[in-house]
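testing teh design pipeline on a random one, pls ignore if ur not involved
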């Protein structure tokens, strides 16, 4: 039986490249939206979901944190994937022929120095893999696309320049999610992700966080966002180092429970070596 991993975007998207890198034995299933990715796993059409949660340049991916708690899925792995941007064009086209490139809005500023050096204008597209697909169908020799090497491979385009991004640190963190949790694995460093809402009492967040400090648990991420459009109900998303079965983590989570109205663990998984 073919094992599938669902991702959001067109074939050749960076999420597709992440699937190939992190799950090389799986067939990647493209989906129109993040909701469709989650639905594909819940229905059994795919076994796993590849969901981007944050980028080192642009911060968290909009709306993902709201979707995760209600998805019914569980985090079983994380993957840190470098975002390499390549300039591609129709076969046989030379870089001197290109005057315009199409790409997702966030990619164009990342290649500003390269584009300026070659006198190329960037125009925003809905997504970069889609821009590559459109270019392959268009036959336009003066147009290029900024996308992944995988997109060039899929759509039969020539890569004119590889890794043209201005900064070498651009990395996206993905979460790999499944229908069932897996708490059996152990590695040198484990990550536990959870969401919670604090009680409406003075200093509730301060008190809730105190248990992690006193028990020596390192919290690597804490983000807040509104719930259901309310300015008074705030939900927090957190990553900590450790496993819920570790004595110090168990004590910290137990103390957290005293000051929260809702606490849900989304997954416990090995830390990516590139973390």
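output:
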């Amino acid at each position: 039986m073919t094992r599938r991993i669902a991702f959001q975007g067109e074939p050749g998207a960076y999420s597709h490249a992440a699937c190939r890198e992190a799950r090389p034995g799986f067939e990647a299933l493209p989906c129109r939206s993040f909701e469709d990715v989650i639905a594909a796993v819940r229905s059994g059409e795919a076994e796993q979901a590849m969901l981007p949660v944050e980028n080192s340049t642009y911060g968290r991916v909009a709306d993902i944190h709201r979707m995760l708690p209600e998805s019914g899925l569980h985090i079983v792995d994380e993957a840190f994937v470098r975002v390499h941007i390549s300039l591609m064009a129709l076969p046989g086209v030379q870089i001197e022929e290109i005057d315009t490139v199409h790409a997702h809005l966030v990619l164009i500023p990342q290649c500003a120095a390269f584009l300026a050096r070659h006198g190329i204008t960037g125009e925003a597209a809905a997504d970069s893999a889609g821009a590559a697909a459109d270019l392959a169908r268009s036959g336009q020799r003066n147009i290029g696309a900024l996308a992944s090497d995988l997109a060039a491979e899929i759509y039969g385009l020539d890569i004119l320049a590889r890794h043209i991004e201005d900064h070498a640190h651009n990395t996206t963190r993905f979460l790999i999610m499944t229908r069932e949790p897996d708490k059996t694995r152990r590695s040198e460093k484990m990550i536990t992700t959870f969401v919670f809402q604090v009680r409406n009492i003075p200093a509730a967040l301060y008190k809730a966080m105190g248990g992690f400090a006193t028990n020596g648990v390192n919290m690597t991420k804490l983000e807040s966002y509104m719930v259901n459009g309310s300015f008074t109900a705030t939900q927090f998303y957190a990553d900590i180092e450790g496993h819920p079965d570790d004595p110090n983590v168990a004590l910290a989570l137990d103390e957290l429970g005293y000051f929260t109205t809702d606490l849900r663990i989304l997954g416990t998984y090995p830390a990516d070596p590139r973390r």
